[in-house]
Amino acid sequence: MLPNLKKIAWLRETSGVKCLLALKCFATWSVFDFMSEYMDGSTSSSLYEVRLGHEKFSGETHAYSVAYADHEIDQVLECSDKIIFNSIGQLTKFSHASRGHIRGLRVNPGVSTSDFDLADPARPFSRLGEHDPIAIDGVADQISGLMFHNNCENESFERFDEMLTLIEDRFGAVILKMDWVSLGGGIHFTGPDYPLDHLATRLKTFAETFGIQVYLEPGEAAITGAATLEVTVLDTMYNGKNLAIVDSSIEAHMLDLLIYREPAKISPNTGEEEWMICGKSCLAGDIFGEFRFSAPLKAGDRLSFQDAAGYTMVKKNWFNGVKMPGIAIRELDGSTRMVRDFDYTDFAAALS
Ligand SMILES: *Cc1c(COP(=O)(O)O)cnc(C)c1O
């Protein structure tokens, strides 16, 4: 995690942007103290996330939700420094409740970098944010900021730059009336070849041109490569391919692999032996992927799935009653500390 956080800290210092951890993909609060040394605070997508950020992540706390319920709004306001509404309807509905609070509105610029419809905020008929500059201008006096979140796993600075220019052209007049703008998450600026200096310059120019404080809301960029899922082989079989069954499950522990039809990552993934790694749930397609090894796998072997921090711990579930993986922290000195383990009582407690 540290290399990512150092890049985030450099970007803040060089460009003047503030970086808030988006808790959506990673809400492992045991490491929030460490992360908060490199970041300005946290942002959220629900009442429980904003409360967690408020209680556990020092610095600023932004609240956002696709829709707030009447019974949530007071606590959301108590837990946040800023509240960002998803629609003009919600802004209007809660205008009295939120008076005196710093308020913003999510804007949907109609362009994005997602090539997977399910995760594309700019998909046709999207509910994620207001899109009409004239309508947004009509409520500009009630808000002091805007939030755009239209990048998704975007590794290309050029594409980011292009889309920011579109945002400037389409929404520049209303941005000029604002004090702050959040550009959301999804910018993979902690990747190995990302031109971080270009990003810093672009963000600084954007901030100066419009006289605003710029925020970024990195989630995945902060935690890329920062965790592994450690599993043990329980059994091996052969059915036209070498199969290894492990004490975990994609449906229960790495749900995104199932949703987005992607394989897990194993490193170095070389050698003569080819094996399909399978989960232990009853789902026939519960398969982590096919990988290469230097020797045949056998029961008791330990395997390590790489890059397992994002959308795992927040999406774990009790499907099939498969024991959840514990959460352990590897400290900077290399020592490991178990911070959470799960047992039967957690399974039973999650049900009734
Ligand atoms: C998902 C999300 C983020 C974080 O996105 P990453 O891809 O994890 O960087 C930030 N802001 C909003 C509004 C989001 O929905």
Automatic annotation (TrEMBL):
SUPFAM superfamilies in alphabetical order: Alanine racemase C-terminal domain-like, PLP-binding barrel
Swiss-Prot/TrEMBL catalytic activity: carboxynorspermidine + H(+) = norspermidine + CO2; carboxyspermidine + H(+) = spermidine + CO2
InterPro entries: Ala_racemase/Decarboxylase_C, De-COase2_C, Nsp_de-COase, PLP-binding_barrel
Keywords: Decarboxylase, Lyase, Pyridoxal phosphate, Spermidine biosynthesis
Pfam families: Orn_DAP_Arg_deC
Orn/DAP/Arg decarboxylase 2 C-terminal domain segment(s): 225-308
Cofactor: pyridoxal 5'-phosphate
GO MF term set: diaminopimelate decarboxylase activity
Gene3D superfamilies per UniProt: Alanine racemase (3.20.20.10), Lyase, Ornithine Decarboxylase, Chain A, domain 1 (2.40.37.10)
Residue numbers binding substrate: 220, 256
E.C. number(s) listed in UniProt: 4.1.1.96
Recorded family membership: Belongs to the Orn/Lys/Arg decarboxylase class-II family. NspC subfamily.
PANTHER family for the chain: CARBOXYNORSPERMIDINE_CARBOXYSPERMIDINE DECARBOXYLASE, DIAMINOPIMELATE DECARBOXYLASE
Protein name: Carboxynorspermidine/carboxyspermidine decarboxylase
Source organism (scientific name): Pelagimonas varians
